Amino acid sequence: MRNPFILSFLAVAATTSAVVIRHDVEDQLYKDLASQTQYACVGRIDSTEDDDSFIASGVYIGAHNGSAWLLTAAHNNLGAASAATVKFGEDTYTLDRTSWLDYSGGSLVPGKNDLALIKILDLENAPTAARFVSSKLVIGAAGANKPIGTSVGFGKSGNGNTGWAGDPGIKRGFKNRLEFVDLHIDAGENSVDYWGYWSDFDNGAASGNQLNIPPLIVSSAAQLDLEGITAPGDSGGGLFAIKDGAERLVGITSTSSPGIGGVDGAYGSKTRWTAITATSSAWITQRTGIAAVPEPNAFFALGFGIVSLMRRKFRR
After folding, report:
1. Could you say which of 139, 195, 230, 279 would form a disulfide bridge with 234 (CB–CB 3.0 to 4.6 Å)?
2. Residue 144: its pLDDT value, please?
3. Which residues of the chain have pLDDT under 50?
4. How many domains does the chain have?
5. Does residue 301 sit within a domain?
6. What is the pLDDT of residue 140?
């Protein structure tokens, strides 16, 4: 028998993805989280295309050979913009639209390949660059030890009772459990792949715990202190988590889907971030010359090689 929850989950339509907060927590705490030094690399994108303008987010990942690079979501489509800028703190810089590199190659799959790169022109006061991973996190099906992600962006706000509200443009961050990554659900003719990292906006009850899909995924309904979810304007923002003992950039905000009552941004809403994988990490390095954080076994192999060389040298 098919799990009826899986069928309802399959029917949810994804929408373009800001930070919606708990109804019982001060907004300033989410702003304070985003203002921490390690998240200065997340900038506000302002873009104009024809007569329309929009706000999005992007992450500064460093510079190589005189070029500074911003990682963002491919669906922001800055290559088609007539003008685009990124702002870090009080400093605004022009984005080189001709340098736009789309990882999806024009065949966008949200959560899977929703990544893009663009050069930042004349970056004088660069924030500390985000260190991105060389492979995705491993997330178990169940247990209280699922990784906690911190998502930072410039989207709309609102709270879990009301859903999205207001205009985008203010920097906020939130924390959430990463429930799974790149999940395949075998449901016969309705089989589907859910790409990327996924989280739901818990309210402490089963109604908000909409990513509880036993036995595939066993999710806790407990809220984190700064639980939240994304909304329009957060697209391209950073997802940070602990990997190999240090906080790294592990993903980029891609899409979200509605929660309780079909309300965008309400409790029960889901967000997915495109995971930085071994393949996409290699693409970033190939295109920019900026290296990902090596895996620990790479350090071990390097160290072992050096020791072996030294032993051979002293045996001569």
Report:
1. 230
2. 59
3. 1-17, 299-316
4. 2
5. no
6. 80
